[in-house]
Structures are given as C-alpha cells and as structure tokens.
Design brief:
Helices cover about 40% and strands about 20% of the residues. With about 280 residues, it is an alpha/beta fold. It has two domains: about 1-170, HUPs (Rossmann fold, 3-Layer(aba) Sandwich), CATH 3.40.50.620; about 185-275, Pantoate--beta-alanine Ligase, Chain: A,domain 2 (2-Layer Sandwich), CATH 3.30.1300.10. Strands 1-4-3-2-5-6 form a six-stranded parallel sheet, with helices on both faces. It has a three-stranded antiparallel sheet with strand order 7-8-9. The termini are far apart. The model has no long low-confidence stretch (mean pLDDT about 95).
C-alpha cells in the first residue's frame, strides 16, 4: 500500500498503475472508515487489478461548520483497516486539494431540490467539486459508492454524464450493524444509548414496508409517529420517491422503483438511511 498526500504524488502513482495495464477501481471516502467502506474496497479488489482509496474530509460539502469540526478523523486506524485491500491511498490536506479555489458550479436540476438538497444548501455542489477533481486525478475504470447515500449516487451519476467522465459509477448495498443501524462514520459520535435507540430507524422503515396501503401519505404518517415514540430521535424528513428521478410520488404504484429516504437526529448526530419499497 502506497500512501500519497499531494496531487503530484497521486498523479505519478496513477501513471505507473495505468502504464502497467489492467482496470482501476476507486473508493472515495471521508475517513473514519468502517466495514461499510471495507465492503466497497473488497468489491473493488475483486473486480479490478488495482484499487485506490481517498481519505479526505471535504470542507466544501459541509454547510454546517460545526459538523465539519466534529467529523471524526482517524487516519492511522483507517490505514490499518484497509492496508490489505488497496494499492494507493490519497490522504491530502484541504490546502492541497484546493490549491485551485473551489469556484466550480454544477446544476443537478431536480435531483438536488429534494431531500438533502433543501436541508443542506450547497452540499451537492461541494460533492460535485470534490468527486470531479478526484475522478480527474485517479481516472478509474470504476468508482464505488455506498447506497446509504442514495441521493448522492444519483448526483454523482449526473456529474459523470454532464462532464463526459468515462468512469463507471457502481452503487453498493448498505452494510448494517447487527441491530440494523446503517454503518456510518457518524456512528462514532453516538453514545451507547443513542446507538441502541438509533437502531429503531431501520426497524421502523422495515415495518413501513409491511403496511396494508400503497398511499405514500399513510406510510409517511406511520414512520413519523413511530420515530416520535423514541425519545432521542427527531425526524427531519421522510421522503418516498421515484427511485430513478428522486421526485416525490403519491402512491407506491406510481413508479417502477420506489425508495424511502430518511434523515433523523439521534441526539445531536444526524443520520440518514433508506429502504426500497419496489
């Protein structure tokens, strides 16, 4: 495993890899790595000759500066976790990544006007900025993203299409704790009590798929009522959307692919999750 911290070092490492021939898989992360990230790297390892991982807490996608400050940073432990699954790790500073100021502006249309978009203004433009730069520098054949960030995958696919990037975007299933709680770097900030109670999020989502109704309004009301029963949980939104366009629907029969996406505060920690209805 080769650790590089500058753009020039990354480009040199990638030049050698591309010259050697064979496909390249890439897993961009913000560190505080867990088994979910490891599942992406294992898949990359299985499907490509070379695997690259970036570890970078990207400031341009945080609309809440306090959240940026509190985001866990565990580089030494991260490197130990992934050393057997990656050929190159890019772990730059913010000053290195943004030697060229972040002036790019992307338009993701209706994809960014729902769910996380209104809740986190500027977030998806920040995602677009860093993903575009990383893909340009690494030039992977495939880039792997976890489906916990369901909306982000749609945004990244739009970015790749807009910018004529040749990399294939590969969505990968959510990895969960035994309790059902979706693995997330933010889980490190949860107390034991908060972590136990946050597991109710997925339980409630699962139960919502078993209701005897196709009316979205009824399903949303059920989820809101059940979340409110858990004392530390506060619902920010629960959207049931067309799985392709991410636009809200009124009935489960309105689309061939239907996904429910949720954002919940467990104490001070904001968690997201999703579940498929169809």
């Amino acid at each position: 495993m080769q650790l590089v911290t500058t753009i020039e070092e990354l480009k040199n490492a990638m030049a050698q890899i591309h010259a050697a021939g064979g496909s390249v898989g890439f897993v961009p992360t913000m560190g505080a790595l867990h088994e979910g990230h490891l599942s992406l790297l294992k898949r990359s390892r299985n499907e490509n000759k070379f695997s690259v991982c970036s570890i970078f807490v990207n400031p341009t996608q945080f609309n809440n500066q306090e959240d940026l400050v509190k985001y866990p940073r565990t580089l030494e432990a991260d490197l130990q976790l992934i050393e057997n699954y990656v050929d190159v790790v890019f772990a730059p500073s913010a000053e290195e990544v943004y030697r060229e100021p972040a002036t790019e502006q992307y338009d993701f249309g209706d994809l960014e006007k729902v769910m996380e978009g209104p809740s986190r203004p500027g977030h998806f433009n920040g995602v677009g900025i860093i993903v575009r730069r990383l893909l340009d520098w690494v030039q992977p054949d495939r880039a792997y993203f976890g489906e916990k960030d369901f909306q982000q995958i749609a945004i990244v696919k739009s970015l790749v299409h807009q910018c004529h990037i040749q990399s294939e975007i590969v969505p990968c299933p959510i990895v969960r704790e035994p309790s059902g709680l979706a693995l997330s770097s933010r889980n490190k900030r949860l107390s034991e009590d908060e972590r136990a109670k946050a597991a109710n999020i997925y339980r409630i989502l699962r139960e919502s798929t078993e209701l005897n109704t196709t009316r979205v309004e009824d399903i949303q009301a059920f989820v809101a009522k059940e979340i409110a029963k858990v004392d530390i949980l506060k619902l920010e939104y629960y959207a049931i959307v067309d799985g392709e366009t991410l636009q809200p629907i009124r009935d489960l029969r309105d689309a061939d692919s239907v996904v429910g996406c949720i954002a919940v505060y467990a104490g001070e920690v904001r968690l997201i999750d999703n579940i498929r209805y169809k």
